[in-house]
Design brief:
250 residues, alpha/beta, TIM Barrel, 8-stranded parallel beta barrel, binds phosphoenolpyruvate
Length: 250
């Protein structure tokens, strides 16, 4: 049975006290969420300690939104995988399209980050997804296939077993446009088939999340698809009501 996951990517939103309040609100309602759904909160680095404290007696897990591609040393402004793990994270989001686009993260950078995250016991949530022009040119399978092969194919099966994949079409992130359930299922099935080329049966065990304007109104239809195992949620993760409603949509 694949794990059902609803992960909230708070991006660069909330101040620490607001983040702690949001985390408290979410965990106070966690009993409304089916017990087989793993909730993950990914606040900014500066809130990790406070959110870790807020969720410590719940089943929710903590994630960072990124980690450094070096293990330690003179890298001003960076935060290492070891630091994130020590702050209480069990997950880290890697390869989000905003990191790829605005901070020029390449597969080479992501290979380093992936190795360090795994070496520090973190479970990477590895994001893939095509831009609008790539979809319009019919290149979405090529783009997503390359993002999978260039990074995930370098892992051992043991490492791959702890990775979560998130398919996030760039044209759907923060735009209010959601992929249709059919479009999302088609590419999730493609991702699983691509993983099967390298990892065989293990691909059936990997959770693949959908991300991109997922909200209470569309989560049920998306999560009902055979290869969609949950969501990576941006904007709607900043409201406890919406985040809980999405997590109840399986
Ligand atoms: C995201 O950036 O991970 C995301 C899914 O954002 P939104 O839900 O706001 O589209």
């Amino acid at each position: 049975m694949r794990k059902k996951i609803v992960a909230g990517n708070w991006k660069m939103n909330t101040l620490p006290a607001e983040g702690a309040t949001l985390a408290h609100e979410i965990v106070s309602r966690i009993t409304e969420v089916p017990s087989d759904v793993q909730l993950i909160l990914a606040p900014p680095f500066t809130h990790l300690d406070r959110v870790a404290e807020a969720i410590k007696d719940s089943s929710a897990a903590l994630s960072a939104q990124n980690c450094a591609d070096r293990d330690k040393g003179a890298f001003t402004g960076e935060v290492s995988a070891a630091m994130i793990a020590a702050a209480g994270c069990t997950y880290v989001i890697l390869g989000h399209s905003e990191r790829r686009e605005y901070y020029h993260e390449t597969s080479a950078t992501l290979n380093s980050k992936m190795a360090l995250a795994l070496a520090n016991g973190l479970r990477p949530i590895y994001c893939v997804g095509e831009k609008l022009e790539e979809r319009e040119a019919g290149r979405h399978f090529d783009v997503v296939g390359a993002q999978i092969r260039e990074v995930l194919f370098n892992l051992t099966p043991e490492q791959m077993a702890s990775v979560v994949v998130a398919y996030e079409p760039v044209w759907a992130i923060g735009t209010g446009k959601t992929a249709t359930a059919e479009q999302a299922q088609e590419i999730h099935a493609f991702i699983r088939k691509t993983l099967a080329e390298k990892y065989g049966w293990l691909s059936e065990e990997i959770s693949i999340l959908y991300g991109g304007s997922c909200k209470p109104a569309n989560a049920r239809e998306l999560f009902a698809q055979k290869d969609i195992d949950g969501g990576l949620i941006g904007g709607a993760a900043l409201k406890a009501d919406d985040f809980i409603a999405i997590a109840r949509s399986f």
